[in-house]
Design a protein that fits this description.
The complex is a heterodimer of chains A (254) and B (273). Chain A has 254 residues and is α/β, with parallel strands linked by helices. Chain A is 37% helix and 27% strand. Chain A contains seven helices and ten strands. In chain A, the strands form two sheets. In chain A, strands 6-7-8-3-9-10 form a six-stranded mixed β-sheet, with helices on both faces. In chain A, α3 crosses α4 and α6 crosses α7. The longest helix of chain A has 27 residues. Chain B has a single domain, classed as MetI-like (MetI-like fold), CATH 1.10.3720.10. In chain B, 79% of the residues lie in helices and 0% in strands. The chains are: A alpha/beta (254), B mainly alpha (273). The interface between A and B is medium-sized, with 23 and 17 residues.
């Protein structure tokens, strides 16, 4: 069983003059098993930084981050905000590029491309695909490495509303089939409620403000009444937090 | 106020059209026609110069002279000597230039230290290197080889440094996030990212080096294409001189069209899909 354990995580940035800015301030978070957890929070609350540290892309100042799958290190898949495909390689070759386990990768790649509806486009270059199709390749790429843990950084934020709704449905369907441990960063509360088992709200200053359990049946649709009610409730709480953040920013002298 | 009827949108029956891609034949014929037009224009201008001037030999006379050079063994012998020097100098320039270019691309210190020198190297005409090496090394194989090296080096450095700086950092982060090995990153991210600029580096280096080689052989050698051109120049025989100019141009065009062009198209195929 895969798990993400974060304790006392601190991240500071230093500018050229040596001034310190604390982005994450003592984050404690534990995600275990087949759980879909969304991280939401206002701009500047350190969501993406947290994800980058968990993935190993960024270093941290203090604290511990552990990604385990049983008694070994967890294998990680990552879906970025933008697709980040190698433009000089075809869709199939992009999936091949990230494989550690070469056995049966072609079948895995084809399987996940089929799941995102792009099974017939494996020989295309990224430039021949639309933005939404490229992002679907990004999702298939992350799932195709059979990750124990899947990290996703606002993967639908650059897409139009219709495309992102379709991709959310794709994502939920694949997740229900494969049941990975997911850490999903988003600024979209609707998205978080529709996809998550748990929503972790980060506050400005980089600490956990609250955790909301989402106990609703799957698959979910944005139009389901129960989903809509919870969305409204979370959104109201989120707006209070954003208002506080805006007020705090206004008080900081220029 | 009158109501205007909006005509219905035109409807299409049958399967959706598939986007048309240019055929391979069409992609090859276009550049070939352009090259043909360029050569024809050059020959036309030459013929005009023959008719209007009295000091320009005709194409036929020039070809005859080239045949005579071939019959006497001077053509291929001198071409071979020049190619030998050219390849040696160019390979060393590519190796050293790539190493320095990578260093400039990766290190701000190296970039600051080498940029002005490189710019000076780019600005210096090849004739300067040819004269300098002749004075340094006299009449020997080292003069043309070092000239080729010096003429090509700055072009390689500049283009490789530019290529290294252009490796997309977001793709390197993808590789890191998925734990892709360094070897795979070099093969599949860095190498393709620098391929275009590398071909440009080789292309400019070849032109500048070939130029330098001819000048070095002109001033400081007793063999090679440049020396043979000077031989006919000193003899005041324009047909002989022009015959060697043709060899000079033919080499550059052949390398560019037959070797570098296809390599570049192959490496950057993904851009034109």
């Amino acid at each position: 069983m895969a798990s993400i354990d974060i304790s006392g995580l601190v991240k500071d940035y230093h500018d050229r003059a040596g001034n310190r800015t604390r982005v994450l301030d003592g984050i404690d978070l534990s995600i275990t098993g087949e759980t879909f957890v969304s991280i939401v929070g206002p701009s500047g609350s350190g969501k993406t930084t947290l994800l980058n540290i968990v993935s190993g892309i960024e270093s941290h100042t203090a604290g511990n981050v552990s990604l385990r799958a049983g008694d070994r290190d967890a294998r990680v898949g990552y879906v970025f905000q933008d697709p980040r495909l190698l433009p000089w390689r075809t869709v199939d070759q992009n999936l091949s590029f990230v494989q550690h386990d070469r056995d049966g990768w072609a079948e895995r790649a084809q399987h996940y491309l089929d799941l995102v509806g792009l099974g017939h486009l494996g020989d295309r270059f990224p430039a021949q695909l639309s933005g939404g199709q490229q992002q679907r390749v990004g999702i298939a790429r992350a799932f195709s490495v059979e990750p124990d843990i899947l990290l996703m950084d606002e993967p639908f934020s650059h897409l139009d509303a219709m495309t992102s709704r379709t991709l959310r449905e794709h994502l939920e369907r694949i997740w229900l089939e494969s049941r990975r441990t997911v850490m999903f960063v988003t600024h979209d509360v609707t998205e978080a409620v529709q996809l998550s088992d748990r929503i972790v709200v980060l506050a400005p200053g980089g600490h956990v403000h609250e955790t909301i359990e989402v106990d609703l049946p799957r698959p979910r649709r944005a139009s389901d009444p129960a989903v809509a009610v919870l969305q409204a409730e979370v959104l109201a709480r989120f707006e209070v937090l954003e208002a506080r953040a805006a007020a705090a920013r206004a008080e900081v002298p220029a | 106020m009158t109501a205007t009827a909006i005509p219905p949108a035109p409807t299409r029956t049958g399967p959706a059209p598939t986007p048309r891609r240019p055929s391979r034949t069409r992609a090859l014929v276009g550049p070939a026609l352009a090259l043909l037009a360029s050569v024809a224009t050059m020959l036309l201008v030459w013929q005009l110069a023959v008719v209007l001037g009295d000091r320009v030999p005709s194409l036929a006379d020039t070809i005859d002279r080239l045949s005579a050079e071939q019959a006497s063994g001077d053509l291929w012998g001198n071409v071979a000597v020049s190619m030998n020097r050219f390849v040696l100098g160019l390979v060393v320039a590519l190796v050293v230039g790539t190493a320095l270019g990578v260093l400039m691309g990766l290190s701000r210190f190296a970039e600051n230290a080498l940029t002005d020198l490189t710019m000076a190297g780019l600005a210096a005409p090849a004739v300067i290197w040819a004269l300098l090496t002749t004075m340094w090394f006299g009449f020997g194989w080292l003069t043309p080889v070092v000239t080729v090296f010096l003429a090509a080096l700055p072009f390689v450095m500049v283009n490789i440094a530019k290529a290294v700086r252009a490796v997309p950092s977001d793709l390197l982060l993808v590789a890191r996030a998925f734990g892709v090995s360094r070897t795979e990153v070099l093969r599949h991210v860095v190498a393709p990212a620098v391929a275009g600029s590398t071909v440009a580096a080789v292309r400019f280096a070849i032109m500048s080096a070939w130029n330098g080689l001819l000048l070095a052989e002109w001033f400081g050698s007793t063999s090679g294409v440049g020396w043979r051109s000077r031989y006919w120049y000193d003899a005041n025989q324009l047909d002989g001189f022009l015959a060697w100019v043709l060899v000079f141009i033919a080499f550059l065009v052949l390398v560019d069209q037959v070797v570098l062009g296809p390599v570049e198209r192959r490496l950057t195929r993904w851009r034109s899909v």
